[in-house]
């Protein structure tokens, strides 16, 4: 166990398989134990990265260009750590959630193992073909999770999601083929210097194909159409996973390639285009979220809006002074982390309220503030993070992003970010307001197990503490 | 961490910790909840009292925490912070007592007191913030923690008021954030310093600094209820009486006014603002607010709404005093921060008493109420006379210094504004007092809920707080020249602000 890297891939595959054999109860318990171990492994790995900069691992002892390289730098470390910090409380939550007699537990743990293995590999991949494989795996596992409930609606959502994810990775693969055809290699380390020298038409085309494929998976407006039904229709622990982590994976790849492989193509025009789409996503997602009558759909549309926020990063890091770019990068990464924690918490809290109400309907929330104060508090704090108000990680992110935009004189994006924050306040307070109303006389709330409430609270608490620990996150980021 | 550093955290914790515990208490644990609240309030008062003593003896209370590279959280108690923190802590104690009596038997008390404590934590945080970044954090926290208090009753009117409150304050907060970040991008990291910090910048940045000043005033003006940004304040009246009392006397409006004081003296510096011709526009905005608020108050038939418009007007006394270029008017402005607080809280306590005891909300229903509730009415009259500026009250001292300051600064028009406003104050308060004592009582009150028992005209916990704050109004007026009065302390502050 001297090197944690292979174990981060093998262990989830292993417990995923075993939990299939062991059945739901024991399988779930095994998964939780293994998630704790994995968290420790990630901590070990992050420690190594901080101490000795980038970590490489050649699979099977064969390094690129013949074999497969795995590579962990600062950004990858942050993502790995984030994934495990989010997934452990969600695992505990899921165990309790499925014990409340909710359909769809059957394949949850095996699929979760597969998903986690895919995510970990994706973050560590150092070649574009390997990335394709992990994307495909991730997509299939996610589709499986969406469909676990087994009812018509979730199957429909899963199938729609399946088509999108297959299309996305297909388009991406076409781009990979073009690159391989031109240069005969798929390793990032080999390709980067080649592309830096000259940008051929094939490379340009490949970049566009790969970008579109990844945008589809990230659900940036106008590719967001599949997200609300998939995220809103899945069992709650799955919704939380998808919104918090899975869409981040493809965004992570876009960011990676923007900064690395396709840096010569990362022009200000392209950045403005992505930023513009992001702005529309913020506006559209927020308005749609505000119009929802179901809690989980509201949270799902909020994800559509928040994805828009991530893409505002591109104009802020492209062709501006290095200091402004660095601040923006820091802000963007903290935004990713804060959103993952907050959105997981928000979905989890929404799930608790829905269980208690017996139905997913915002109008029925009246009176829940005295029945589930902790959960409502969780939801509220997660909402405050999304609004980017203090004292949360979301605020630190917003501070950094706006600082960067101000210092590079990009006032348009400042306005977009400020408006985005106010719009998110609109839909968050729509829920809180309803929850603070006195209960209707005929409303009966079902009691909920505290083991559901506390993991959700833990997630939001971490996002709160992030405002005091952002320096540590940035230290990890700066390590690679 | 040194003793002085941990004191700062303790001041915050003394309301934060009880607040958090109270959230988790069941409704029925009334005694424990009250005990926690009062312990916290008294502890906070003691801690701040100790710091007041320390500041006079040259102690320095500052705590810096490096959040990011070039981004520090700074808590600092200087003379100005101590003034505002003392006011907040003292009035929190009074309001807590009042609220315990007021909310007897009403639902959701744990939630109420939890947010109440958070609200005070935020206010004291605003007072102790040592730079704009920290200030902003507590300023927004104040918005978030007061919202549940405004909508507490859950009625349709409360929800509507809550929406309006959020729209105003969150938008104001957003403008403030942009302004602060812009300023940080020009100056790098800076703290509040006597005399201001922006004067070091090259004169080519002056236009930017002017825009930033405008944005800062807009952002803070929402909470300080500067016309035309005051629309939320009269709406927020639907909140329970203790909330209105705290909102109008210390928490929200004062946070805005306090922020403006910090901006004028410790970010821009009064000399610099004068040289940029930015003080006069601020004084004019304050004057318009003073007159407009008083005028609107005249037309209100609901007592709490009349008081709300009176707040709009009175808070701008502070801003007017601060923006006239003379130390004497500054004394008048800053001391009014305290004086307006104790007078206004008295008035709101009394209004709450009439509503709770007799079901009276409208001024037309108050005939002869002085004979039914003498103590409450005496307290009301003292505070109202104070608002008018009658001698022997705290309000007299404020107006005296403001007027003198206007004279010294050679801005006689400002003293005209104050005179007109005093006339209006008299016009909307004196008829109420006349009704109290010289009109005959009706046969039955609107809805008598608490009956007189012996000497007690209403619930004891509802009576003591207004009597204490009314007494404070007199004490602050009569003993203004002693060296433990607010006035004395404010003179100390102003000496430092003007670098004298």
TrEMBL record, chain A:
GO biological process: ATP synthesis coupled electron transport
InterPro entries per UniProt: CPA3_Na-H_Antiporter_D (IPR050586), NADH_UbQ_OxRdtase (IPR003918), ND/Mrp_TM (IPR001750)
Locations listed in the record: Cell membrane; Membrane
Species per Swiss-Prot/TrEMBL record: Nitrosomonas communis
PANTHER family named among the record's database cross-references: NA(+)_H(+) ANTIPORTER SUBUNIT D1, NADH DEHYDROGENASE
Entry GO MF terms: lyase activity; NADH dehydrogenase (ubiquinone) activity
Membrane topology: Multi-pass membrane protein
A cellular component annotation (GO) from this entry: plasma membrane
Keyword vocabulary terms for this entry: Cell membrane, Lyase, Membrane, Transmembrane, Transmembrane helix
Similarity section: Belongs to the CPA3 antiporters (TC 2.A.63) subunit D family.
Residue stretches spanning the membrane: 6-23, 30-50, 70-93, 105-123, 129-149, 161-181, 201-226, 238-259, 271-291, 298-317, 337-358, 370-390, 410-432, 452-470
Protein name in UniProt: Formate hydrogenlyase subunit 3/Multisubunit Na+/H+ antiporter, MnhD subunit
NADH:quinone oxidoreductase/Mrp antiporter transmembrane domain: residues covered: 125-422
UniProtKB/TrEMBL annotation, chain B:
TM stretches of this protein: 6-25, 34-53, 73-100, 112-139, 165-184, 211-233, 245-265, 277-295, 315-338, 375-397, 417-438, 459-480
A single Gene Ontology CC term: plasma membrane
Residues annotated as domain NADH-Ubiquinone oxidoreductase (complex I) chain 5 N-terminal: 69-113
Record key words, sorted: Cell membrane, Membrane, Transmembrane, Transmembrane helix
Entries under InterPro entries matching the protein: CPA3_Na-H_Antiporter_D (IPR050586), ND/Mrp_TM (IPR001750), Proton_antipo_N (IPR001516)
Entry similarity comment: Belongs to the CPA3 antiporters (TC 2.A.63) subunit D family.
Protein name per the record: Multicomponent Na+:H+ antiporter subunit D
Classification lineage: Bacteria, Pseudomonadati, Pseudomonadota, Betaproteobacteria, Nitrosomonadales
């Amino acid at each position: 166990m001297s090197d944690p890297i292979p174990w981060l891939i093998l262990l989830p595959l292993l417990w995923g398989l075993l939990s299939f054999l062991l059945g739901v109860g024991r399988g779930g318990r095994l998964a939780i134990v293994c998630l704790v171990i994995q968290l420790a492994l990630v901590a070990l790995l992050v420690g190594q990265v901080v101490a000795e900069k980038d970590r490489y691992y050649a699979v099977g002892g064969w390094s690129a260009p013949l074999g497969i390289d795995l590579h962990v730098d600062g950004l990858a470390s942050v993502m790995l750590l984030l994934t495990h910090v989010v997934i452990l409380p969600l695992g505990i939550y899921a165990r309790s959630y499925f014990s409340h007699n909710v359909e769809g537990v059957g394949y949850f743990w095996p699929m979760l193992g597969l998903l986690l293995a895919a995510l970990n590999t994706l973050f560590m991949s150092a070649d574009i073909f390997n990335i394709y494989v992990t994307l495909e795996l991730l997509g299939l596992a996610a589709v499986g999770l969406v469909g676990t409930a087994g009812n018509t609606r979730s199957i429909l959502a899963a199938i729609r999601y399946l088509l999108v994810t297959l299309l996305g990775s297909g388009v991406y693969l076409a781009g990979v083929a073009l690159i391989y055809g031109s240069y005969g290699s798929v390793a990032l380390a080999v390709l980067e210097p080649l592309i830096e020298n000259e940008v051929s038409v094939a490379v340009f085309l490949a970049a566009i194909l790969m970008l579109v494929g990844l945008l589809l998976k990230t659900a940036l407006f106008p590719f967001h159409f599949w997200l609300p039904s998939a995220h809103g229709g899945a069992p709650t622990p799955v919704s939380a996973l998808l919104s918090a982590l899975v869409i981040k994976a493809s965004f992570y790849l876009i960011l990676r390639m923007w900064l690395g492989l396709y840096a010569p193509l990362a022009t200000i025009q392209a950045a403005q285009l992505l930023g513009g789409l992001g702005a529309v996503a913020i506006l559209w997602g927020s308005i749609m979220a505000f119009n929802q009558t179901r809690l989980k759909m509201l949270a799902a549309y909020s994800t559509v809006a928040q994805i828009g926020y991530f893409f505002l990063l591109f104009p802020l890091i492209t062709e501006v002074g290095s200091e402004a770019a660095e601040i923006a990068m820091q802000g963007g990464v903290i935004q990713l982390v804060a959103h993952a924690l907050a959105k997981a918490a928000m979905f989890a809290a929404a799930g608790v309220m829905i269980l208690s109400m017996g139905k997913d309907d915002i109008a029925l929330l009246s009176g829940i503030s005295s029945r589930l104060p902790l959960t409502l508090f969780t939801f509220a704090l997660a909402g405050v993070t999304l609004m980017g108000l203090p004292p949360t990680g979301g605020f630190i992110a917003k501070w950094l992003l706006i600082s960067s935009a101000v210092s590079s004189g990009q006032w348009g994006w400042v306005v977009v970010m400020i408006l985005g924050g106010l719009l998110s306040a609109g839909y968050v307070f729509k829920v809180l307001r309803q929850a603070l109303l006195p209960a209707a006389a005929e409303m009966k709330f079902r009691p909920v197990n505290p083991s559901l409430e506390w993991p959700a609270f833990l997630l939001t608490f971490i996002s709160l503490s992030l405002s005091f620990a952002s320096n540590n996150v940035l230290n990890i980021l700066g390590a690679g | 961490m040194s003793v002085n550093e941990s004191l700062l955290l303790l001041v915050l914790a003394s309301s934060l910790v009880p607040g958090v515990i109270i959230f988790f208490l069941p409704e029925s644990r009334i005694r424990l909840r009250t005990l926690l609240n009062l312990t916290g309030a008294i502890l906070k008062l003691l801690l701040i009292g100790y710091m007041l003593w320390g500041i006079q003896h040259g102690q320095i209370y500052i705590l810096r925490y490096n959040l990011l590279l070039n981004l520090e959280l700074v808590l600092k108690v200087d003379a100005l912070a101590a003034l505002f923190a003392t006011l907040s802590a003292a009035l929190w104690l009074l309001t807590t007592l009042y609220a315990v009596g007021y909310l007897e038997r009403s639902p959701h008390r744990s939630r109420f007191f939890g947010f109440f404590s958070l609200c005070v934590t935020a206010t004291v945080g605003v007072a102790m913030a040592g730079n704009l970044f920290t200030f902003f954090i507590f300023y927004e926290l104040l918005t978030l923690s007061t919202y549940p208090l405004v909508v507490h009753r859950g009625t349709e009117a409360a929800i509507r008021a809550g929406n309006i409150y959020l729209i105003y304050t969150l938008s104001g907060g957003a403008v403030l954030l942009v302004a602060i970040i812009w300023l940080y991008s020009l100056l790098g990291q800076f703290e509040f310093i006597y005399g201001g910090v922006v004067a070091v910048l090259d004169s080519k940045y002056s236009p930017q600094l002017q825009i930033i000043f405008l944005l800062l005033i807009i952002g803070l003006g929402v909470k300080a209820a500067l016309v035309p940004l005051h629309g939320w304040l009269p709406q927020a009246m639907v909140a329970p009486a203790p909330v209105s009392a705290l909102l109008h006397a210390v928490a929200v409006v004062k946070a805005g006014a306090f922020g403006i004081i910090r901006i004028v003296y410790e970010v821009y510096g009064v000399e610099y603002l004068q040289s940029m011709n930015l003080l006069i526009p601020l004084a004019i905005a304050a004057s318009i607010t003073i007159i407009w608020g008083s005028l609107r108050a005249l037309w209100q038939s609901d007592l709490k709404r009349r008081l709300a418009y009176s707040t709009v007007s009175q808070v701008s006394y502070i801003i007017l005093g601060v923006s006239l270029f003379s130390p004497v008017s500054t004394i008048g402005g800053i001391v009014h921060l305290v004086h307006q607080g104790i007078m206004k809280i008295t008035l709101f306590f009394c209004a709450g008493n009439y509503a709770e005891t007799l079901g009276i909300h409208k001024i037309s229903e108050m005939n002869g109420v002085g004979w039914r509730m003498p103590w409450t009415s005496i307290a009301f009259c003292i505070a109202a006379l104070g608002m008018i500026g009658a001698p022997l009250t705290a309000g007299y001292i404020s107006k005296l210094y403001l007027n003198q300051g206007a004279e010294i600064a050679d801005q006689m028009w400002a003293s005209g504004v104050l005179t007109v406003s005093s006339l209006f104050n008299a016009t909307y308060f004196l008829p109420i007092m006349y009704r109290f004592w010289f009109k005959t009582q009706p046969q039955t009150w609107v809805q008598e809920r608490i009956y007189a028992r012996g000497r007690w005209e209403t619930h004891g916990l509802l009576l003591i707080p207004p009597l204490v704050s009314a007494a404070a109004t007199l004490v602050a007026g009569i003993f203004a020249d002693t060296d433990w009065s607010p006035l004395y302390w404010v003179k100390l502050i102003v000496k430092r602000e003007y670098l004298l």
